Amino acid sequence: MSPKAAATAETLAAATRNGDRRAASKLISQLESAEPETARAASRAVAALPLPPHTVGLTGPPGAGKSTLVDYLTAILRKRGKRVGVVAVDPSSPFTGGALLGDRIRMSSHRSDTGVFVRSMSNRGATGGLAAAASDTLRVLGGAGFDVVFVETVGAGQAETQVVALADTVCVVQVPGLGDDIQLMKMGILEIADLFVVNKSDRPGARELKLQIEQALGESPGEVCRALRQLGRDFATGYEGPKWMPEVHLLSGLDQKGGDELVDGMLRHRAFLNQPKLAAELTRNRLAREILWRATRRAGDAWEASLAPGGSLRKLVGDCADGKMDLESAVEKVLKAKVKP
Amino acid sequence: MSPKAAATAETLAAATRNGDRRAASKLISQLESAEPETARAASRAVAALPLPPHTVGLTGPPGAGKSTLVDYLTAILRKRGKRVGVVAVDPSSPFTGGALLGDRIRMSSHRSDTGVFVRSMSNRGATGGLAAAASDTLRVLGGAGFDVVFVETVGAGQAETQVVALADTVCVVQVPGLGDDIQLMKMGILEIADLFVVNKSDRPGARELKLQIEQALGESPGEVCRALRQLGRDFATGYEGPKWMPEVHLLSGLDQKGGDELVDGMLRHRAFLNQPKLAAELTRNRLAREILWRATRRAGDAWEASLAPGGSLRKLVGDCADGKMDLESAVEKVLKAKVKP
Fold first, then answer.
1. Residue B94 lies in a domain
2. Residue B98: closest CA among chain A residues belongs to which residue?
């Protein structure tokens, strides 16, 4: 890695810590740089920045009104004196790409507010890149002193599920009339949500949907912590305190109703996670994930380069194609190749 | 790796090559085993099996009628004497999980037909696992002698886009009235589809949608090959023949109309890819991807194990949590750790 790229990234990271918004913005751009040296240097510099005190994952199907909701919640948190970051994760899918285009031009009501930072990120790149890139971006916002950071995803796909696992509090947004089948929800949503939002609560069926969710929750076993289920529980520290009971909130993002109650719920959940042994367990599990994501991405990038034109392992592909080497031996050769640290 | 697991997997792979359906089924189960030794042994054994002669990626938004369509196309291909495999990729998302539940109980009309093999696969597991696991499954079906294999995904998310890149022919399914915005399609679908299907062609707006797609295609630059765009073109061999012009087909899966024309289009596209230099380029690019996916998954699994309880790198996480080591140093230590081949 070039010493120059490293120096630039370090300078930007230091400025970010001092609350320099433009430095934070530039650092995120460098993280997303197509130039591997630049991206790698930025990722390294960012690793030393802290995660935000409270990350709220917000997910739900397209059309659930997530963007308007985030806008509304941001306004409430600003009134309470919190600095708010928003990371909108665009899975770069041909099908959802359109839906998220709107994100880039939204939040216009907060545009002149230096206490709000909005960033869309997408990643078509290396395997496992999305979660690693999102955790990098979270550290930039944490370093820049934002108190609450929303990570907004469209709830579909493996990579997006991993992103949700980055959040302290997971908020699942539903609307009445979108899916007429409560079965759909039982399959997995109940496992990941700390808070449910029934958005567009003025629509017919909103109260019924809330009841259905509450009923389904009553049937599902309690969890100590949803985040831990996502992360795995490899670093158990023996927490045996009370369990978190997911809350269901009726809300209208458009009419600005119910937001204060939801924000209270979010903060209640954050306070819940602060219980000593639970907090330690969460920190360790999240660090293990982050180390793994970063290592995997770093190795993937290095191997990709080694298989590309001019790369040291390029001959392997030709040998495989010509039948001189089997796939398995090629994989083993790649694994044994030195990954540039 | 235990010699016993390896021997079992090798035996199953050999039986699969002899057309033993139950062996193929068991091999896929072993690929998905929660027991790492078993899964690894299976993946290794499978690497020596050939890919199917024709893999057709089928993607589109939820509700586009993909399942019914696959069922219909399978019937047509069976009449033409082809053996057909279907791999339904379930991204394990709480939001799409429900939609795909139906896949597991569908295709009932082909249940007693030994020339049809249906498998749903999901992967909540390691980073990059979905594409690697799908390519493993494709090799099992190729080894078992299936002529055409459909890989069906819900089009959303990074991992699913990678799965599409495994296919020779990419078929994008749309329906009139689902998204009212053609802009959505322009953003990315045009780049990946070799064939468009306007499904539910009896609905109002079907012909208009077909026209809109054709118009959009007319405005987009031609591609030598969509698959190569997905894979990257690192292994260019100098193909300069004609370009493939994507076709748009009206179809009704429910009324069984238009399927023969679509199947003809799929086979036309497969024939197109067989042009000497193009075929070589595709093979090399796909092999490079597969080597990369396999190596990344293998490394990710090994590192995950090393960070888990009893793992050799577990202390790193504690050191990071206690502030004795920074994240970046931990990542470097993981990268330098030997990956069990």
1. yes
2. A184
B91-114 average pLDDT score:
52
pLDDT in tens, B57-83: 988 776 788 888 999 999 999 999 999
The verdict on a CB contact (< 8 Å) between A304 and B284 is no
Element (H, E) at B58: strand B54-60
Q: Which residues of chain A does B178 touch, with a Cβ-Cβ cutoff of 8 Å?
A: none
B297 vs B303: CA distance, rounded Å: 10
Long-range contacts formed by B32-37: CB under 8 A, 24+ apart:
B32/B121, B32/B123, B32/B133, B36/B301, B36/B305, B37/B1, B37/B2, B37/B5
- Domain annotation covers residue A227: yes
CB proximity B235 to A under 8 Å: yes
Give me the pLDDT at residue B93, please: 42
Min distance A32 CA to chain B CA atoms (Å): 16
Letter string b/e over residues A73-107, b meaning 16 or more CB atoms within 10 A of that residue's CB: bbbbbeeeebbbbbbbbbbbbbbbbbbbeebeebb
Work out the average pLDDT over A75-102: 70
pLDDT digits (tens, 9 = 90+) for B204-259: 989 998 988 888 887 765 565 666 666 666 667 777 778 888 899 999 988 889 99
Global pTM?
0.79
Which 115-144 residues of chain B touch chain A by CB within 8 A? Answer: 123-124, 127-131
Number of domains forming the structure of chain A: 3
Residue ending a domain, among B30, B46, B62, is: B46
Q: Choose the mutation target among B59, B96, B226, B292 for the interface with A, i.e. most A CBs under 10 Å.
A: B292
Least Cα separation, residue A51 to chain B (angstroms): 12
Segments forming the whole domain that contains residue A180: 50-283
> Do B38 and B78 fall within a single domain?
no
**Do B54 and B31 belong together in one domain?**
no
Q: Are residues A132 and A195 in the same domain?
A: yes
A296 touches chain B (CB under 8 A): yes
Q: Which of B92, B99, B321 sits opposite A158 (nearest CB)?
A: B92
The C-alpha of A257 sits at a distance from chain B's nearest C-alpha, in angstroms, of: 26
The residue among B158, B174, B313, B315 with the most chain A CBs within 10 A of its CB, best to mutate, is: B158
- Tell whether the model's pLDDT for residue A186 goes beyond 60: no
Q: Are residues B68 and B97 in the same domain?
A: yes
**Residue of A93, A94, A296 with shortest CB distance to B127:** A296
Q: B190 pLDDT exceeds 80?
A: no
**Does one domain contain both B89 and B150?**
yes
Task: Verify whether the Cβ–Cβ distance B95 to A155 is below 8 Å.
Answer: yes
- Within this chain, do residues B42 and B62 fall inside the same structural domain, yes or no? no
Chain B touched by A318 (CB under 8 Å)? yes
Sign of CA dihedral A265, A266, A268, A272: positive
In-domain check, residue A290? no
Same domain, A114 and A254: yes
pLDDT of A220 over the 70 cut: no
Looking at the complex, does the CB of residue B47 fall below 8 Å from at least one CB of chain A?
yes
CA triplet A233, A238, A240: central angle to 5 degrees? Answer: 105
What's B277's DSSP letter? H
Say if CB A70 and CB A81 are below 8 A apart.
no
CATH number for the domain harbouring residue A98: 3.40.50.300
Q: Does A106 touch chain B (CB under 8 A)?
A: no
Residues of chain A with pLDDT > 90: what percent? Answer: 34
Q: What is the mean pLDDT of chain B?
A: 81
Question: Does the interface predicted TM-score (ipTM) exceed 0.85?
Answer: no
Average pLDDT over residues A286-297: 87
* Pair (B57, B12) in one structural domain: no
B291 found inside a domain: no
Longest dimension (CA), chain A: 67
Q: Could you tell me which residues come within 8 angstroms of residue A270 by beta carbon, excluding any fewer than 6 positions away?
A: A53, A54, A168, A169
pLDDT, residue B120, reads: 79
